[in-house]
Amino acid sequence: MTESWICFFLVCLNLLSWTKPFVLSQEGVPETRVFTKEVTADKCTSGVPGPPGRPGPPGPRGDAGSTVDATPNWNSCQWNHLNNGNDVAQVVTCSITKTYSDTYLYVGISSDMRFAGGSSGCCRWYFTFNGAECSNPVKIEAVVYANGYASVNMHRPRMLIGYCKGISAGSITVGWHVGQCSGYGTYDCYSGWNSATNMWIEEVTPSPYD
Asked: How many degrees, rounded to 5, is the angle at CA 149 between CA 144 and CA 152?
């Protein structure tokens, strides 16, 4: 007496075959069943991506940040009709109390600045901070040069502005000076003729591009 069957089962495009032969005893009673499995594996392909999962739980609370004083720190000084004819001198000063050491000072002045008295010459105006010129990043200065105007006396409004960093916190006196240009002699300079002079100082946060 002989008995056999075949079972097919498809998993991930694989064909599985099962064969079940019987070994019979002398009395005709099956003693043992032996199963064999043959698997033919093919490469599976990825399916369609599933939908996005649900948002995860909130993360832990971060550390508290440092406090920043949002109150502007600035000062301005004004003078009417300075009429300062000095050729080399500190013209005026204005002060501020700097709160932080890592901030900048933004300074500016608007006034009459005139050069005269020579066929070719130059006058220079610049800022100092507690007596020293800015060196970080550069000096804050302006020069007025003329050539061929020996008999001309032209007064014109001008503006000088700039940023300076690397200045320690504390009391800062900003000076506005007039002097001679490098490589030139002494010429006739004039500051604040017959008009108002406005000077301002402001402490500002560092630049994000610094």
From this structure: 95
Residue indicated by tokens 């300079």:
189
The answer to whether the CB of 110 falls within 8 A of the CB of 158 is yes
Instruction: Give the Cα separation of 167 and 98 in Å (integer).
Output: 9
| In the block, residue with structure tokens 């994000």 | 208
Neighbours of 92 (CB within 10 A): 19
Pairing of strands 104-116, 188-191: antiparallel
Q: What is the pLDDT of residues 72-127, one digit of tens each?
A: 999 999 999 999 999 999 999 999 999 999 999 999 999 999 988 767 889 999 99
Q: Count of alpha carbons within 13 Å of 110, Cβ hemisphere only?
A: 5
State how far the Cα of 77 lies from the Cα of 127, in Å rounded to an integer: 14
- Torsion, Cα 141 146 151 155, to 10 degrees, reads -40
Number of Cβ within a 10 Å radius of residue 184: 15
Structure confidence by residue, pLDDT tens digits, 185-204: 888 999 999 999 999 999 99
- At a CB cut-off of 8 Å and minimum separation 6, what does 3 contact? 22
Give the Cα separation of 15 and 24 in Å (integer).
Answer: 29
Return d(Cα 77, Cα 201) in angstroms, integer: 9
Rounded to the nearest 5°, which phi and psi values hold at 137? -85, -35
